[in-house]
Amino acid sequence: MTVTLKDFHADWCGPCKTQDPIIDDLETEYEGVEFQKIDVDENQDVANEYQVRSIPTVVVENDDGIVERFIGVTQADEIETALEKAGV
To answer: CA 54, CA 37: separation in Å to the nearest integer?
Structure first.
């Protein structure tokens, strides 16, 4: 089962900068998860596909689809719960 975490952000987004170290820590902890940082300004098509309207938005998905979506700064424990639910 492939588990992916998509981190939708932008360089000008203050809350995204708060979210970054949380995601970075999780990335070192969960080696089996594919982490993707997606700049919404550079990848509007992907942001639209995932219906991202606010940033930061974190999407956790597996082979079955989206498991969890977080809008706004999200703490590590909530994301970890979603990753485990996704099958990590």
So the answer is: 15
